[in-house]
Amino acid sequence: PEIIRLSEVIKKCDKYFEQILVHTGQNYDYTLNQVFFEDLKLRQPDYYLDSVGADLGETIGNIIAKSYKLMVEQKPDALLILGDTNSCLSAISAKRLKIPIFHMEA
User: Fold this and answer.
1) Which of the chain's termini has less CB crowding within 10 Å, N or C?
2) 42 with 7: CB under 8 angstroms?
3) Residue 31's pLDDT is what?
4) Could you say which DSSP state residue 53 is in?
């Protein structure tokens, strides 16, 4: 899961500036979700998108739609995404809202 690679980045960002941590909700099983927050000593996400749909297409659509709505509400200065997973599709929402996108890859 992305949270492993992002764990130290999240901690540093929390130390130096205000950030919003968003979880897409794709991994809802304890062994693919909560265990990492506990073991890596990370704070809980500010928002859960609960994006899981009946199939892949619905899940992808939910990620885009729900991230768009959240960005309209929160008006972030930028979006940081990691890798090439479904959650990166939130970049579509950021692009449409003219929010700068920062992409990390391991």
Assistant:
1) C
2) yes
3) 58
4) -
Q: CA–CA separation, 100 vs 43, rounded Å?
A: 25
Print the SS3 string covering 2-52. HHHHHHHHHHHHHHHCCCCCEECCCCCCHHHCHHHHHHCCCCCCCEECCCC
Q: What residues contact residue 72 under an 8 Å CB cut-off, 6+ apart?
A: 97
Q: Which domains does the chain have, with CATH numbers?
A: 2-104 (3.40.50.2000)
Tens of pLDDT, residues 60-87? 999 999 999 999 999 999 999 988 888 9
Whole-angstrom distance, CA of residue 79 vs CA of residue 89: 11
Rounded-to-integer distance, Cα 95 and Cα 79, Å: 10
